[in-house]
Amino acid sequence: MTDTLDPALRRARMLPRAAVGPRTLPLVRGLMGLALRRTGADSVVTLAGGARVHVYRPAGAPRGGLLWIHGGGFVIGSPIQDDPWCRELADRYRLVVASVDYRLAPEHPFPAPLEDCYAGLAWLAGRADVDADRIVVGGASAGGGLAASLAILARDRGEIRPVLQLLSYPMVDDRTTLRTDLDDGASYRMWNARSNRYGWRCYLGTDSSGDVPALAAPARVEDLSGVAPAWIGVGTCDLFHDEDLAYAARLREAGVDISLHVSPGAYHGFDGVEPDVPVSRAFTEARHAALADVMDAA
Question: Where is the Alpha/beta hydrolase fold-3 domain (predicted)?
Answer without folding.
Answer: 66-270
